Predict the structure.
Amino acid sequence: ARIFEGVSVEHIRTTDGQAVGVDTDQGPIDAEHVVTAAGMWSHQLGRDVGVNIPLHACEHFYLVTEPIPDLPSGLPVLRDTDNCIYVKEEAGRLMVGAFEPVAKPFGMAGIPTDRPFMQLDEDWDHLAPVYEAACERLPVLENVGIRLFFNGPESFTPDDRYLLGETPELRNHWVATGFNSIGMQSAGGAGKVLAEWMVHGRPPMDLWDVDVRRMQPFQTNRRYLHDRSVEALGLLYAMHWPFRQVETARGVRHSPFHDRLADLGACHGEGGGWERPNWYAPEGVEPTYEYTFGRQNWFEYSADEHRACREGAALFDQTSLAKLLVQGPDACAVLNRISSADVDVEPGTSVYTTWLNDRGGIEADLTVNRLDDHRFLVVTAFSTQIKDADWISRHTPDDARMTVTDVTSAWAVLGVFGPEARNIVAPLTDADLSNKAFPFGTLQEIDLGYARSIAVRRTYMGELGWELYVPTEFALGAFDALWESGEPRGLT
Ligand SMILES: Cc1cc2nc3c(=O)[nH]c(=O)nc-3n(C[C@H](O)[C@H](O)[C@H](O)COP(=O)(O)OP(=O)(O)OC[C@H]3O[C@@H](n4cnc5c(N)ncnc54)[C@H](O)[C@@H]3O)c2cc1C
């Protein structure tokens, strides 16, 4: 290997959707693989070539005191998460670092590119509450001078996990970035697994938590990244409550049903930017989480929903499902090669299948819905939207006559599940919903109120039911019609 220092990469060179090298201020370098490991500069390098590297810099602070007489050496590192501080003995001094709950984003007008390392201005007003708390925890701090106030920028990702792996937008381009203030302690492991991933073409262990393909295209939005970074830094030390919800950059991605469901008492949680109804508060109860490690405040309300689903019917907003329209004369052959189940089925069949890698490991778990001879709707979780599309793309021969279009935004999805489902849907359509005419695992295009809907006879509840795919502009009408039909029948 050759290492060049003091060289600035100006641009990642690409050909046919692949990275083939870099242009630097000292000339081009050809490469079979390019790894962007440029810290907070990574976002812009990626953006220049259409690659989504969602991270935002924040100011991160620590102080070093003057020498403290008789301070024992070799003290353990103290982490006082309630007070957002970490304290470390350093050559007879104390170093006090902060992960304050409301962080200070940096670099909104772009990260300066004229230096590799940055020290920013002191900000006592910002740090004072944390330092006061530190003095209460360690009274010795009250009477000792400050030798160094260090403020350096560091990058944070929307979910506080770093970004590793090959980018779906550009082949042979890899990232190891977005280290959320644990980049030094993570460096050895991150470098090792990324190297093995590159050599063997697969990660050496399950790295989905940090896989860059978990990120959604909208997450490159700078306002979103800025607003989320304010919270992301502090979350490192915040209480990791079960069901904890992020509080910043909320309300960015709504299903058409959002407001209707909020009126019905929905407590929305966030996933991939989507606001999704997690549970419903009864009238008079505030739909908010009361975090606890014990029984959740929504336990009984959720139980009511379960009961309704078993005994009557429940309506689910499944709009966040990712939908990929795979079409063309070779669509069937390609999908059948990828899927572990046989998807070369009669049009109007919905197949629940895994996609496996060459070691038999599960890469995806989704449905492949055959609309007609040449058109399939692949439906998967929002969290794997990019990964699953990437998997298809990687396993599509160059000469295959097939296209993949992400149609997630085109379709809202309502699940009507439970023994009453048929009685609720039937008044809105002239389609025959009987078991004989519309058996489990099949789909039909049907009228639904004023809309045309793809109805899939499938539930994940073990009960009768349909997933109803409705074009987004018809979604509210379909919702209202279903609710009108369902409410008297106990739809929840
Ligand atoms: C105050 C402070 C305290 C911290 N304390 C800890 C700690 O105790 N433990 C811990 O684990 N982590 C700590 N961190 C975090 C840690 O420093 C980072 O997570 C880590 O440095 C990130 O590594 P990186 O390689 O991703 O980015 P960087 O360290 O920022 O390195 C990126 C490099 O890429 C170079 N670069 C950028 N653009 C280009 C270009 N176009 N061409 C060529 N080169 C380019 C930059 O010059 C830079 O050298 C701390 C951070 C701060 C700010």
User: Anything to note?
Assistant: The radius of gyration is 26 Å. The longest strand covers residues 146-156. The chain has a mean pLDDT of 96.
